[in-house]
Amino acid sequence: MRYCIDNGLHRQATNLPPTLDEGRKQIFWTAYMLERSVARTMGRPHSISDRDIDVPLPANIDDEPDTDEAIIAAIAQSNQHPSQITALTPAIRIFRLQQIDSKISHTVCRVDRDVSVIKPHKVARLRQALEEWKAGIPQTDPENKPHPHLTTDYHMIQYHKAIILLNLSFLPTLTPQNPTFHEIVHSAGQVCFLSKRLHDQQTYISFSLLSLHANFVAGLVMVYCFCLDSSIFSPEFSSSVRACSTMLYIISERWPKAVQARKPFDRLITATIESDDETNNGLLRSEDNLHVSRDGFQPGFAADDPGHLEVWNSFESILRDNQIDLGTWMHDSIFNTMGTSQPMD
């Protein structure tokens, strides 16, 4: 990204040949997508503000045109048929979603402002932008076995990840009676379920650091919400949790360091969802027979009530050396917490 900025690729250029102009756009927005994704995953700030970017997205054309005349003709055809699917369609869709995610990070995921002061209409506007993006997802025929990045499942994974990003900062303040509480549980489950289904259908899709992060955070959200309200358990919820565990196992098979995320998640599952301790309704039980008082626990408590902190204290006991900070967990990189920031081989 620094190279792109140094060479002015973030600014709209004029009087450039179409081949050079489109090439610059493709390079910048690819770097933008990677930089935003990695920064969000690693808990780091963005290297450039969206307010300093005015270069348009690349044209929705195939890679074959390699002359100025051919690119001009391809752009004209794309303008006449905006819904056409080309080699660049998946990338352009993700570029647009990354722009929305960037606005979410700037508006909601802030360390200098408490979530209580965020204006509801700003959150509603971001949610509307996500719904509009979802409505434009290209519909593909599963029988044709398209490339994974062209499938509806892949796009829906990105959508649900964005829903989690939008709502995650508010989760410690939500009660189980709040519709947003159940929405984030559903999106977390869909991230894991759809990831596993995409893996089952497409044997050649790769699994990256970003995929590990998305599935681990989604799994953590499901366990956390279950500890607040065990009534969310259902066959669908159970399938989603199993899908998360499966995905973490698959990724750790390809990247041994990822086992440091898989094992703590397995411990959480054993101590919460799979627990058969009738004295606490199967909510919280560590492998070391951790005894946690449930006195005064009522579903729907606020974030600063003892029950809410109790969940986190129990999480920390289960995770042992892998501590989670209640105030910053939605901002911090999960890999800094789990110690898995080494790259894949």
Automatic annotation (TrEMBL):
<dbReference type="GO" id="GO:0043565">
    <property type="term" value="F:sequence-specific DNA binding"/>
</dbReference>
<dbReference type="GO" id="GO:0008270">
    <property type="term" value="F:zinc ion binding"/>
</dbReference>
<dbReference type="GO" id="GO:0006351">
    <property type="term" value="P:DNA-templated transcription"/>
</dbReference>
<dbReference type="Pfam" id="PF04082">
    <property type="entry name" value="Fungal_trans"/>
</dbReference>
<feature type="domain" description="Xylanolytic transcriptional activator regulatory">
    <location>
        <begin position="1"/>
        <end position="64"/>
    </location>
</feature>
<dbReference type="GO" id="GO:0005634">
    <property type="term" value="C:nucleus"/>
</dbReference>
<dbReference type="GO" id="GO:0045944">
    <property type="term" value="P:positive regulation of transcription by RNA polymerase II"/>
</dbReference>
<keyword id="KW-0804">Transcription</keyword>
<dbReference type="GO" id="GO:0000981">
    <property type="term" value="F:DNA-binding transcription factor activity, RNA polymerase II-specific"/>
</dbReference>
<keyword id="KW-0539">Nucleus</keyword>
<dbReference type="InterPro" id="IPR052202">
    <property type="entry name" value="Yeast_MetPath_Reg"/>
</dbReference>
<dbReference type="InterPro" id="IPR007219">
    <property type="entry name" value="XnlR_reg_dom"/>
</dbReference>
<keyword id="KW-0238">DNA-binding</keyword>
<keyword id="KW-0805">Transcription regulation</keyword>
<keyword id="KW-0479">Metal-binding</keyword>
<protein>
    <recommendedName>
        <fullName>Xylanolytic transcriptional activator regulatory domain-containing protein</fullName>
    </recommendedName>
</protein>
<keyword id="KW-0862">Zinc</keyword>
